[in-house]
C-alpha cells in the first residue's frame, strides 16, 4: 500500500501498488477484493499497476491482492501478497469558549479551546472563521489547540470552528462544532417564530421573522441553521426578513439565527438570538378493545376506544371497518373516543380509527388496526420458517381448523408505512418469497373464505417478518500453544454462536501469498497430523447450512507456527575404551538450549543416566 499508514480514516485516499519482479514489460494487472462468501470480487476499474480508492469509506474495508498477465512469455504472474485495509471514522473535535459568558463586549479577551478525542498526540490545528459577509477564512499562524483574541472588536464576531491533523501517522479529525462569537455594539436583531406553538409537528407550516430596531428598509438578511447532525448551513436564496417552511419535517429541527447587513455603506448588525425548532412526529393514535370479552359470540357488543397522544383539544374521531367484502367502510363519525358495535357471525372484522382536528392546527392521523373475531369462525394459523436473512427464501403456511375443504385464501400485509393491503395473486395456503429484501418487511395475516358454511375463517395470528444479522463464528486452537516443535498434531475448533443444528464448515488456509480452501473437511474441527516446519500457516473458517439456507460471518484468523525438531546429543562422560563388564558407565544427553522451551528441565539443557553394574544385556 503506497504511503501506507495505520489507521486509515474515512475520507482518506488510498493507493495500492502492484509490482512484478523479473524485468519483463508489457504487464496488464488484475485487481481482486475478498468477499465474505468465500469468493473474490474482480475490480474492473483499472488494469494498471496502481489501484486508487478516493475518499474511502468503511465499505472499502477488506482484503486486496493483484496479479499480472501479458501477451508474451511468461504470460501471467503468481497472485500477490494480500493487503488488509481497515477504514475507521475520523476522531471527533470539540470546540469550547473558555470562561464562556452570555455576552462578549468590545475589548474583552476571548480564548477558544480545541480538543480531539482518542488520546493521540502530535496534532496540529487549523482554525476557521465565518464572518458576517458570508465568507469562510482560515485563521493564519495558529496551529495550537487554543486561539486567543486580545481586546476583541466587532470585526472578531463570527462563527468559529477547528480541526486537527498529524503526520505520524497521517490523520485528520472531523470538523468541530461551531462556536458563535458575538461582540456587542451594533444594531440589535430579534428572531422569533410567528404564531409560535409549544409543540411543532411534522406537516406544520413554520414562519420565522427577523426584526430590527429602527428603519432598516434597505438592509438585506442572511439566515443560518445548526442542525441535529452538527452541521452549520447558510439558508440560500433567502434575503428577506421572513423565512417560511411549508410542511416541516424532523430534518428541519435545529437552531436558527439571522443578521442584517447592507453594502453601501458597508454595515452589519449583531447576530440575532437563537431560536430552537424541535419538530416531532405527528401524534400517534391507538385503538384498542375496551373491556374485551373472550370469546365473542353472535350479537355481542364490542366497544372500541380510540385515543391520541396529544395535548391539543377538540379532537373528532372517524371509525372504519374492514368488511368481509375486502374493503374499508366508514361506520361512524363522532366527537367521542369510543364506539360500540354489534358483531355478527361469519365476518372478519378489522377496525381502525382516525383522529381529526378541523381548526388550526389541522391533523388527520390513523390508528393501528384491531381485529375482532367471533367464535363461530374456524381458527386460522399462520406459521413461518426461521430465520429470515436478506437473500433467504421465506415460506408462510396458512392452515384452518375444523377439517373443512374448498377454502380460498386471502393474504394481508401491514407494511411499516402503516398501510394494510391484500397480497395479490396468492390464493393458496402457502406464500413464498424468493430471496427476501427489506421491502418484504412487514406484518402478515391470512384468512379463508368458501361457498359453503362456515363461509369465513377468523383472521390468523400476525407474523412479523424481520431480518437478523449473520451468526458469528470463532476459531481457536485446541492445543493452546503459540509455538510447536518437530512433528506434532494440531487441532483447530470453529464454533458458531447460538449452537443451532445443521451447520457445515468450510476451512481455508494460507498457501504462499494466497488463500485456498481445505477440501473434504466439513466438521467444526480440523486436525492436522504430523505438522512440520513448512506447515507454518494461517487459517480461518465459516459456516453454512442448507435447511434453512444460511451462512455465518467469516471467523478470525489463527496462525500455527512450527519449528524444526530439537537438536539432541548423547555422549559418554569420561569416555574411554574398552569398557569391561561390571564397570559403571555414565551417559549424558544434551539439548540445544537455543530451541529449548523454558518449561523443560527447569531451563537446564542437559540430562544424565548412570548404568551401575554394566553388562552386555543392557545394550540389547
From TrEMBL:
InterPro entries: Ig-like_dom, Ig-like_dom_sf, Ig-like_fold, Ig_Fc_receptor, Ig_sub, Ig_sub2. Residues 1-66, 91-162, 180-278, 283-373, 378-466, 471-555 form the Ig-like domain. GO terms for cellular component: external side of plasma membrane. Gene3D superfamilies: Immunoglobulins. PROSITE patterns: IG_LIKE. Pfam families: Ig_3. Keywords: Disulfide bond, Signal. This is FCRL5 protein. The gene is Fcrl5_1.
Amino acid at each position: 500500500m503506497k504511503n501506507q499508514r495505520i489507521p486509515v480514516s474515512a475520507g482518506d485516499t488510498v493507493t495500492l501498488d502492484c509490482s512484478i519482479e523479473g524485468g519483463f514489460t508489457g504487464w496488464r494487472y488484475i485487481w481482486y477484493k475478498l468477499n465474505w462468501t468465500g469468493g473474490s470480487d474482480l475490480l474492473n476499474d483499472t488494469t494498471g499497476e496502481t489501484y486508487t480508492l478516493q475518499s474511502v469509506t468503511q465499505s472499502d474495508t477488506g482484503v486486496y491482492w493483484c496479479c499480472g498477465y501479458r501477451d508474451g512469455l511468461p504470460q501471467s504472474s503468481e497472485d500477490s501478497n494480500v493487503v488488509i485495509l481497515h477504514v475507521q471514522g475520523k476522531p471527533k473535535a470539540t470546540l469550547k469558549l473558555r470562561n464562556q459568558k452570555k455576552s462578549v463586549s468590545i475589548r474583552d479577551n476571548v480564548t477558544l479551546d480545541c480538543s480531539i478525542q482518542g488520546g493521540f498526540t502530535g496534532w496540529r490545528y487549523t482554525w476557521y472563521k465565518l464572518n458576517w459577509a458570508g465568507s469562510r477564512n482560515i485563521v493564519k499562524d495558529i496551529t495550537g489547540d487554543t486561539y486567543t483574541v486580545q481586546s476583541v472588536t466587532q470585526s472578531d464576531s463570527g462563527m468559529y470552528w477547528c480541526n486537527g491533523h498529524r503526520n505520524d501517522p497521517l490523520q485528520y479529525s472531523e470538523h468541530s462544532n461551531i462556536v458563535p462569537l458575538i461582540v456587542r455594539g451594533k444594531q440589535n436583531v430579534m428572531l422569533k417564530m410567528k404564531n409560535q406553538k409549544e409543540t411543532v409537528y411534522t406537516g406544520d407550516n413554520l414562519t420565522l421573522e427577523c426584526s430590527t430596531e429602527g428603519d432598516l428598509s434597505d438592509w438585506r438578511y442572511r439566515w443560518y441553521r445548526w442542525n441535529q447532525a452538527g452541521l452549520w448551513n447558510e439558508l440560500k436564496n433567502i434575503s428577506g426578513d421572513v423565512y417560511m417552511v411549508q410542511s416541516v419535517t424532523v430534518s428541519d429541527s435545529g437552531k436558527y439565527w439571522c443578521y442584517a447587513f447592507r453594502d453601501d455603506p458597508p454595515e452589519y448588525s449583531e447576530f440575532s438570538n437563537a431560536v430552537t425548532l424541535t419538530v416531532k412526529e405527528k401524534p400517534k393514535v391507538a385503538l384498542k378493545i375496551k373491556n374485551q370479552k373472550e370469546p365473542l359470540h353472535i350479537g355481542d357488543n364490542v366497544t372500541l376506544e380510540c385515543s391520541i397522544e396529544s395535548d391539543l383539544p377538540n379532537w373528532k374521531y372517524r371509525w372504519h371497518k374492514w368488511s368481509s367484502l375486502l374493503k374499508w367502510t366508514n361506520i361512524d363519525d363522532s366527537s367521542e373516543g369510543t364506539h360500540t358495535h354489534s358483531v355478527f357471525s361469519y365476518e372478519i372484522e378489522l377496525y381502525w380509527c382516525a383522529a381529526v382536528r378541523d381548526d388550526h392546527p389541522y391533523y388527520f392521523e390513523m390508528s393501528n388496526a384491531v381485529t375482532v373475531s367471533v367464535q363461530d369462525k374456524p381458527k386460522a394459523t399462520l406459521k413461518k420458517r426461521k430465520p429470515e436473512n436478506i437473500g433467504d427464501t421465506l415460506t408462510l403456511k396458512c392452515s384452518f381448523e375444523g377439517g373443512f375443504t374448498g377454502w380460498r385464501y386471502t393474504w394481508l400485509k401491514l407494511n411499516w408505512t402503516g398501510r394494510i393491503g391484500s397480497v395479490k395473486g396468492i390464493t393458496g395456503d402457502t406464500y413464498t418469497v424468493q430471496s427476501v429484501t427489506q421491502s418484504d418487511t412487514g406484518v402478515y395475516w391470512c384468512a379463508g373464505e368458501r361457498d359453503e358454511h362456515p363461509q369465513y375463517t377468523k383472521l390468523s395470528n400476525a407474523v412479523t417478518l424481520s431480518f437478523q444479522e449473520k451468526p458469528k463464528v470463532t476459531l481457536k486452537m485446541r492445543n493452546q500453544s503459540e509455538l510447536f516443535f518437530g512433528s506434532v498434531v494440531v487441532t483447530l475448533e470453529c464454533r458458531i454462536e447460538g449452537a443451532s443444528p445443521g451447520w457445515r464448515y468450510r476451512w481455508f488456509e494460507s498457501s504462499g501469498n494466497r488463500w485456498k480452501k481445505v477440501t473434504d473437511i466439513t466438521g467444526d474441527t480440523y486436525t492436522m497430523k504430523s505438522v512440520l516446519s513448512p506447515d507454518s500457516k494461517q487459517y480461518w473458517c465459516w459456516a453454512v447450512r442448507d435447511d434453512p439456507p444460511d451462512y455465518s460471518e467469516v471467523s478470525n484468523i489463527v496462525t500455527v507456527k512450527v519449528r524444526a525438531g530439537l537438536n539432541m546429543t548423547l555422549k559418554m562422560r569420561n569416555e574411554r575404551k574398552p569398557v569391561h563388564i561390571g564397570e559403571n558407565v555414565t551417559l549424558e544427553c544434551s539439548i540445544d538450549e537455543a530451541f529449548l522451551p523454558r518449561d523443560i528441565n527447569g531451563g537446564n539443557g542437559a540430562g544424565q543416566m548412570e548404568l551401575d553394574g554394566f553388562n552386555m544385556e543392557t545394550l540389547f
